[in-house]
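Sharing a chain and its predicted structure for anyone who wants a worked example. Both blocks are below, sequence first, tokens second.
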Amino acid sequence: MAQLKVTLIHSVAHRLPKQRKIVEALGLHRVNSTVLQPDNEATRGALFQVAHLIKVEEVK
């Protein structure tokens, strides 16, 4: 299964509480922090909600 490399590129300060919780649930804490997440529908849905704050790359 492929994985997604997710990087936080914008701060979550002054964002909606729901967006802050999604970013925290993804394991991102500070700007430029990066995590690997599985490529599944649940992850894709979370990434779609905060797409303006992150950068996503596919890792094989």
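Comments welcome. The first strand starts at residue 3 and ends at 8.
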